[in-house]
Amino acid sequence: MAQFVILFNMTPKGLADLKGAPARIDAGIKALEAAGGKMVCFRATMGAYDYVAVAEGPSDEVAAVTAMALAAQGYVTTQTLRAFTPEEFAGLVSQLP
C-alpha cells in the first residue's frame, strides 16, 4: 500500500470544540480503515502542526478523498504528502534517463 504523511492544523472551529477532538480522531481513523487504509502512526504535536499522521492507503485517490472528507467537517485543515520508501525511491530513480 502507498504511504502518506498527513499534516493537520485545527481551525477556529476545531479549537472551540477541543474536547471533542479525541472522538473525531477515532472517527477519522475508522473512516480511513473503512476505505481500505491503515493508520500507522498518529501524534498530537507542538509546533507548526497540531497533529501528524502516517497512514497507508490502497491509492492516492483514497488518501485524497479521506483528507477532503476530514477537512470538509471544518475542524482541521490538512496537507497530504505521498511518502516513498527507500526501495520505492530507488525504483523511481532507476527510471531516470
Number of H- or I-type helical stretches: 4
Beta-strand proportion: 25-35%
Instruction: Give the strand order, joined by hyphens, for the main sheet.
Output: 2-3-1-4
Q: What low-confidence regions span 5 or more consecutive residues with pLDDT below 50?
A: none
* Distance linking N and C termini: 27 Å
Descriptive report:
This protein has a single domain (2-94), classed as Alpha-Beta Plaits (2-Layer Sandwich), CATH 3.30.70. The model has no long low-confidence stretch (mean pLDDT 96). The protein has 97 residues and is of the alpha+beta class. Strands 2-3-1-4 form a 4-stranded antiparallel beta sheet. It has 4 helices and 4 strands, in the order βααββαβα.
Topology:
Blueprint: E1 2-10, H1 12-16, H2 21-34, E2 38-44, E3 51-57, H3 60-72, E4 76-83, H4 86-94
Antiparallel strand pairs: 1-3, 1-4, 2-3
